[in-house]
Design a protein that fits this description.
Chain lengths: ~500, ~500
């Protein structure tokens, strides 16, 4: 990958002085247009060999741009906040909103590369992790982010010279901050890095290999590449591919797995009280236990309006130490959330170890309401199944137990509950004209729910279908399921 | 994945009799429109559990369609022709041209699944192979193929009943032709199959899970799904995404690895004769040797017009047993080739074990002439780097040695050779007005060549840059390199 970059490239210093002002003006103009239009976010990954000048190009770029709309995200060893959550959490946390540019230093490539170099990671596992990175980056770019990945390379001679000069100047031996290629292990490292670069040079996010022996050449190339990319995207927004295949499989009888539930299941009042108390005590013990402190729980509650999601969540929450859980009601996304890829708003609520997050509606909105209402394009919700599976797999790998509940009621029961809400004063606010309109789309929702369950019920994060016609039955089933999932995991 | 498919789905027999004629007419009309327009090819993969009726749905489809424009490709254990080539070769061989429908029975999924079930394949390797399948299918669909993948599922009770009836009728015990799920091992197999289906249900080629307990339900769903997919593609051709990022990295000094070659290298006549004869003898011995009989060679020759590709190939061929090699001059694609994904024309020439294929120009045309002349869109040639790396990796895994030569000459030397050709009568045909026009694009070619070498020189299939200003030097270097590569591999 480095063939052309490692030959001599020079740019005359005086010519550089002449060219630089135009580049600077161009970058600033492009950035201001981006800030004004807020049409996309740009993520610039900077990585490369020791002594190639990663810090220098970042300084240069910050000099050129308006610093109020740029952020630098540097990642070293994870701190406490970070290490108590899944690996990818910190990268998600820092994703810039539309209109903003982020410079990423020490990226999601570091982990797989380090493990591979240490030999913890066989070739198969390495390739699998790179495939996951490709899916992640494809998701970012599909969501409209401009992703530029720079790899700075420097010849062995120049590298040695620079690191020596650094040591003489500071008395500090250069430490390989990133394992991309330090001087001594260069020979062993290079083929692995080249393999990584090749496998993650995709059409949506190719690596840009930057020859860095000559600082003027390096900086001018760096700046011009960014300028050209910004300009191209500002002038010509990406055209998303239409899905090549009809998403809706003709489901002739419109029967889904929901139709197999026995919604007549009930729990009498006495039995309910006893079962509820038992399950709550069990959950409290589990969540306070030593073993849970290394794990976490994410529970998603989905169901039609008035299916009893809130009531079930309250019964779960009641059993827990309030410092250890948080309930996240998911309504329309905020401006901040709209400015980022759709999974960002859920990543930000991923709990740290020993904690629980209860979602009243969840990321499944993408394949339910957004699909049915047409808020998401067919291509968007079709690829969401895979993205959601990746998301939950990442949570599971980070030690988090993922529980997902579909609270099922009949259309008739929903009507009864709506009418009851309209009569009871303090429940009146819970019912809106939109709730009535949604009833008309009941059948289309059933198909979407069926597809969702089929495509996202994984062994690690299975769906639990809850017969919710009787609220008592539903609440106990939810609590007991969470207890069982935790017991299995701990 | 099978939740909704495994519940009861029924379609009344009489209703089926009423609905079927319309479906049949619709399918036939859609097919004839496809044959006429030749706008795309359709590949229908049929797989699923034993006794689910895979054969039945194929028969039904053949009944419905005009059989002259349909082919059934069934793959069992590879025969001699197939097993002497890389795994994917037979699937490429049979890819239908535009306007045609192929039904694939026993697909590229069988191998990874079998190895996984046998336990030969760890989870990491399994996932890596599925990632390779996803890239393969994405390539097919990006190239315009409509890919439909059906998985037929049947409940345990119905499966048992059908296989029992089959045995009573024929006296033959049903043999698990495909390992997707037979009766006995169902429990063990199902989670693995579900994992496979989930990981390869992409937005460009999602799996379609077909409930098959009720034959009428199954057949009607099957037919309607195909009909809808055909119609949608006929009415609305896929819009390809524009590349989200400018492909051309500003290469300020336009220097590439080509500029580092010492083109003054020469070989005097005497030394040439001796070196040539030695290398030819060495190559003959290698190619006749026992060890080569399990391997094969693919050599690609690229270079500017008049760089001496033909001459070098002749010197290589001269050393070989004519029954063991074939030279493939690559000019404009034929109609047959244009009707299929661009790599098909090279896959068809992949040699069997013990044989050699010499390509005079190659698959690199995609990122050279097609890029420079604009015959391929930016998105197309950008993704081609990864596709080509995948292609060569597949060859290498199949035991084939891949050698790639760039024959480098200066623009001035090209001019001298052009002028000489115009003077020598029997070489006159070798020079056309287009050759002169291409000279004007010399600089753009140099950049494309540099990118090509950077992005496709892998450890398994490295580029060899040949200083070709002196033809004798070039020929000897080519021969010696092939010998070295073979010696390393054998």
């Amino acid at each position: 990958m480095f063939e052309s970059a490692l030959i001599e490239h020079k740019f005359d210093k005086e010519a550089y002085e002449r060219e630089e002002p135009a580049l600077r003006t161009g970058l600033l103009e492009a950035q201001l247009e981006l800030v004004e239009k807020q049409s996309f976010a740009a993520v610039i990954v900077i990585t490369g060999m020791d002594g190639a000048g990663k810090g220098d190009v970042i300084h240069r770029l910050l000099e050129w741009l308006d610093p109020r709309h740029v952020q630098v995200d540097a990642y070293g060893d994870p701190d406490d906040t970070e290490s108590s959550r899944p690996r990818m959490w910190r990268y998600w946390r820092d994703l810039p909103p539309k209109g903003r540019i982020s410079i990423v230093f020490g990226s999601w490539y570091t982990d797989p590369l380090k493990s591979r170099l240490r030999g913890d990671n066989g070739r198969s596992r390495f390739e699998r992790e790179l495939a996951a990175i490709n899916r992640f980056e494809e998701m970012l770019t599909s969501e409209g982010i401009l992703l530029l990945k720079f790899l700075l390379v420097v010849s062995p001679e120049e590298q040695k010279r620079r690191l020596g000069a650094f040591e003489r100047r500071t008395g500090v031996k250069s430490r390989a901050l990133e394992e991309w290629a330090d001087v001594k292990s260069r020979k062993r490292i290079r083929p692995i890095v080249e393999d990584l670069v090749r496998r993650t040079s995709t059409d949506h996010a190719p690596w840009i290999v930057l020859p860095s022996d000559d600082p003027e050449y390096r900086d001018l190339t760096f700046g011009r590449t960014i300028l050209e990319a910004l300009r191209q995207r500002l002038e010509q927004p990406t055209v998303l591919a239409t899905a090549p295949f009809p998403a809706t499989i003709p489901n002739i009888d419109r029967r889904t797995v929901l139709d197999t539930l026995d919604l007549s299941r009930k729990l009498p009042s006495n039995a309910y009280k006893k079962a509820l108390e038992e399950a709550q005590a069990r959950l409290l013990a589990l969540s306070q236990g030593k073993r849970f402190q290394d794990r976490a729980l994410v529970a998603a509650f989905e169901g039609h309006d008035a299916a009893g999601k809130g009531g079930a969540i309250r019964r779960v929450a009641f059993a827990l130490d309030p410092r250890r859980y948080r309930v996240h009601p998911i309504a329309a996304p905020t401006d901040e959330e709209k400015a980022r890829p759709y999974l960002w708003r859920f990543w930000r609520h991923v709990p740290r170890r020993g904690h629980m997050a209860l979602f009243d509606r969840s990321w499944y909105g993408r394949v339910l309401v957004e699909r049915v209402e047409g808020f998401a394009s067919e291509a968007e919700w079709l690829r969401a199944y895979g993205e959601i599976n990746d998301f939950e797999e990442e949570l599971t790998r980070g030690g988090i137990v993922v529980a997902k509940f579909w609270l099922a009621i009949t259309k008739e029961e929903q009507l009864r509950r709506f009418e009851a809400r309209e009569e009871i004063a303090y429940k009146h606010y819970k019912i809106t004209p939109e709730d009535w309109r949604n009833r008309e789309k009941w059948d289309r929702y059933q198909l979407a729910i069926g597809d969702m369950i089929d495509r996202t019920s994984t062994p690690e994060a299975p769906w639990t279908l809850v017969e919710a016609e009787d609220k008592r039955w539903a609440r106990v089933k939810v609590l007991e399921t969470i207890c069982e999932r935790l017991e299995q995991a701990l």
